[in-house]
Amino acid sequence: MKKLIVIVVVCLPLVTLAQVQKGRSFLSGGIGFNTNSPDNPQPGSTKQFTRFNINAMYGFMIGDTWAIGVAPSYSTQTQTFSDDTKNHSNTFGVGPFVRKYFALSEKFYFHLDASFNFTQQKDFTESAVGNGPATKSSSNVIALTPGASYFITDRVALQAMLGKLSYSTFKTPGDNSSAFDVNFSITSFSLGATVYF
Q1: What span, in angstroms and rounded, lies between the C-alpha atoms of 75 and 64?
Q2: Which H/E stretch holds residue 106?
Q3: Nearest 10 degrees: Cα torsion 163, 164, 168, 173
Q4: From 53's CA, which of 77, 78, 120, 149 has a CA 20 to 30 Å away?
Q5: Is residue 121 part of a domain?
Q6: β-strand partners of 7
Q7: Dihedral angle of Cα 17, 18, 23, 24, to the nearest 10 degrees
Q8: How many domains, in total, are found in the chain?
Q9: Each residue of 166-176: pLDDT tens digit?
C-alpha cells in the first residue's frame, strides 16, 4: 500500500499538465454569413444585403502566463438596391497582440489582450451603366480587450470576450478622423472556443 501511495505522489505532477504554459500554441476564430432580403423594398432602398466574414487568432505562449500572436480577418459584403445598383465592400485586417493570463483556478483563466489592428477597405459601385471608381479607406485600432477562458479539456477552452477599450484612426479619401471607444455592455459580449496544442 505504501508503494502505491509513493507511485501516485511521484506520478501526479506528470499527469496534471498546466492548461497554459510556455511553448504551447492556440488557435481560435470564426466564420459568419448574413443575408437579408425585404419582401417589398421601397424605391431607392435595399433589395438585398449579403455579408461574409472570417477571422482567426493564432497565439504562442512565450512564458507560463504570456502569449504573443497575430489576428487576421477578411470580410466582403454586397448591398443591392431596388434599381439593381450594387455596392461592394471588401475588407482585410491584420495585427499583432499580446495576452496576459491570470489563473483563477486550474481550469479557469482571466486574460487581457493588448492589440494593434490595421484594416484596409475597398468599395466600388456596380450599375447598368458601368462600374464606379473604387475608393480605399483604412483604419488603425489600438485596443485592450478583457476575456476569460474555461478549459473543458486539456486542449479545448470556451472563451468569452467582454468588450473593449480602444482608440482608432480612420483615413478615407479627403478625410481623416479618430475615435475613442469604451464598450463593456452586454452587446459587446462574444463567446467562442480556442484549441491549444
Answers
A1: 34
A2: none
A3: -10
A4: 149
A5: yes
A6: none
A7: 90
A8: 1
A9: 999 999 888 89
pTM: 0.74
The grid cell for 48 is: 438585398
Start-to-end CA distance of the chain, whole Å, equals 37
Residue 70: what residue type?
Answer: V
Domain at 59, CATH number? 2.40.160
Q: Which long-range contacts (CB under 8 A, 24 or more apart) does 76-81 make?
A: 76/51, 76/52, 77/49, 77/50, 77/51, 77/52, 78/48, 78/49, 78/50, 78/51, 79/46, 79/48, 79/49, 80/46, 80/47, 80/48, 80/49, 81/44, 81/45, 81/46, 81/47
User: Which residues span the domain enclosing 78?
Assistant: 18-196
Q: Phi first, then psi: what are they for 107, rounded to 5°?
A: -115, -10
